[in-house]
Every structure is written in C-alpha cells, then in structure tokens.
Fold this sequence. Notes:
seven-stranded antiparallel sheet, elongated, Beta-Lactamase, alpha+beta, disordered C terminus, 20 helices, transmembrane
Amino acid sequence: MSMQEAVTAAAAAVCTALQHPQEAHSAPAALQAVLPECVHVGVALTLDGGACRLSSGNLLRPPHQASLMTGPSLASTVCKDRKSKLLRQVAPHGGLEDVNAIVVLSGCGAIVCLPLLAPAARDTGAASCSTADAPCLGALTVGFASVANISSGALKGALLLAHALAKEQREPLQDLAALVASLLLPAGGAGGADADAGADSDGWASDLDHLGWDEGSEEGTPDEDASGRSGGRRARQHGRSRGGEPGGPPGAGGAAAEHSGVALALLAFPTRQQEAGFAAYHAAQMHRVDCYAYVICFAFFCLELFVPGTPFFLAKRMGWRALAGYSGIAPGLLLASKRTRGWFAKHRDAILAYTWAFSTLWQTAMSNYSHVLDRDTFRNPLYLQSYGWLTVVGLAFQMRFSFQVLAAPLAYAINTQLLPAICEAFFEDQPPRRCVAVGLLRIFLHGVALPLACCYVFETHARRLFLRSSAHRGSRVLRRAA
Length: 482
C-alpha cells in the first residue's frame, strides 16, 4: 500500500470513528500505518462558528470519549491562526483544555496540532484558494512520547492526514459538526466566542510562545464572562453524559491534581505512557547535570592517574591497565555531539546503569586500590575507608529514583564485601567486628541513604514541574510544522 493510499484509508477510518464510535476498532491500525511514532491522535471539530469544539479524544484507544470544549485550547488557537503548531515538553496546567487532557490521559511529551483547512469550493484549484479564504473544519492533534520521536516522516504523515481529512472527508465532518451543534447547543450558541475573546484580551497571542495564562488557574481565563461560564457548565454536563467523567477533558485539571499527588508520593505515574513522557522530560532536564558529572569524574580520574605527588598516581603504580577505568565514563562522549545527545537522552537510564555497574565492578576488581595505596591514605577521614566513590557516583550520576533505589544498595552490597579485608589491613588497632559494623553503617549513610534522599527530593521537584509548569516555563514552540 502506497503512502497516499494509507493516508486516504486513515482519513476514512477517522471519519468513521467520529460518526460511529462503536465501529472505531479499525482506526488505530490505519493511523499507525501513517503515524507509527505517535501515542495520541485526535480531531477537534469546530462548532457554532468556532464558539466551541467537539473533541474526539484519543482515536488510538477505542472506544474514545468525545466531549465539548468551550474554553481556551490549543485547537482553538490553531484554528484561529490557521497555522500549525509544535509544542515540546508539554505538561498539564490550567490554561489549555485539550493539552491538559492529552498529557494526563496519553502521557505525551510533545504535541503537533494542524488546522483542517478545506478548499473554499469544490471546483476551485488549490492555487487559487488562499489560506485565509479556506474554511477551517477543526484541528488534527498528534501527540508523541517526546520531541525526539517527531521525525520528518511523522510530520509529513500528519500534514498528509490533515489535508486528506479536510479535502476528502469535508462533507461528512461538516455534517457531523452541524448535527452535534443542532442537538447539543442552544440557538444562541455556547458563549465560547466571548470566552475566546476574553482570553485574547488576557494575553493569548497568535504564537504559543507568547501565551500568558496563570498556572494557578484551573477554570480558564479570569475575565471570562457569565455566558462563557454557562457554556463551560453545559460542556461539563455533556462531557459527563458522553464521557463518563465529570467534565471530560475540561476536568483534566482535577485529574492532573489527583495524579500529581500520587506521582509526588510514589514517584510513579499511573500510566506507562505518562511515565515515558516524564522520562523524556527528566532526561532533557538532566542533560547539563550529566555533562558536569562526566566532566568532573573524568577530571578526578585524570588526577588520580597522572598527577605526581598525589596519594594515587595510579598510572605509575598500575601501568597501562589503569586506563581501563575510563571505560566507565566513556558514555559521556555522547553528550559532546548534537547528533548523539538525543540517543543519550532516549537511553539515559540504561547508560547510567552501565556507569554504575562498571564503577562497582571496577572498584571491586581493584579492591578499592587497597593494594596500591599506603596506610596513611586509607586512614585519612576524608577518604572514607576508600568508599567515597559510592557517594560521588550516587550524587553525580542520578538516575530516576526507581532505578537508583536498586542500583545504590546493590553496589553497596557488592563492594562492602571488601571491608573486612580493609579493616584487617589498615585498621588493625580497632576490633575487627567493630570496624566492620561502624564502617557498614557509615558507608550506608553517605553512600546509599544520602544519594537516595537527594534523588528523591530532586525527582519530586522534577515531577512537580512536569505537572504544573506553565507554558512560558515548560512549553515552548520550536518551529512551525508547516
């Protein structure tokens, strides 16, 4: 099947899913053939001249739950501007209804939204039809786990699908929008136009990087008038009857708050897609920290190997085999090139797990350098009985807590098997059992408990930012999709 045939089939499947939700089982396969990297595909149809929108929900997960949206949304901004938008590092907040729902329910880390611009007339050629004259049927929203998943092929597939929906499925979509408007909306409209106007006067500019909502707001713009609020109440009532949840996507702020409490307490989101979105967000935020960690560890290892006059000078005492220690920090070279940074971010947990594993095995194989260092070095309180490396690695190379809570105790259990021999060789003036017991407790506190406590605090903060960051702090427009 050619690309054009796949796009046509996907557009027909989307239209069928919107008209007959009970027959939506064929939509996921058809959409994955065109957009294999996406985790969310939704369509928002314009109702009542743009006063409100019918949101399809995620068509990749039938049965999808359709709902009405009357407040500010990414789809309404795209339809009004008639320009495609690309958002990265998105997080639920109190401003955009559809972004709230997509992030909470689908776990997306990046969103592409395209207007469905139909030709002005059937017999009018594309060359003679300007974008301003083309009626906007709605918007196509495609969500990805992270911005790294948005390839040129994915953008091309999204553009072709939007074009096919607007051109080939124009009449069915318009008929569906008219039917829903006649059944659910009063004759005077939903009042959403006033709400949008109030939003525009409150700082909603045409480009998403100028959006200025209040991250503490959960109900739309503060200047929304009575008609807008009544439209929002009607939308929540329809969402309750059609979606099974109070408010559907407009209630995503409450869902985000509930999920936020669970996430901050357990450091785990309820869905795999949402956890994958946070993993991509966390890896992107930790990029600079990882760079500093590898650079600092590289500098310290060079100091231990090559600088004369230090207690180490391992290159002289161990010879060329000491250079094998660089293998543990070699993955840091991936951060030096823009071409490999994305791969590092995608596989960050596995790479840092390798660094942890190599450091543990290297230190254990080298007996924590007990055979090359003198007695005074080991007895120096700052050397921490040769177990300071656990603290350095634990604080510098911070994986997500779910990984580090396993890695740190495992490294502790493996490497502390050397402690009885170290106590016997360098702390002969202390009772062996007391030396080992005190050493185990001290090493656990500074090598396991301290790094894990810091990791927990830092990740809690990162998850809070992921859930609550406003557009001007956590959501930026990189470029236009078209």
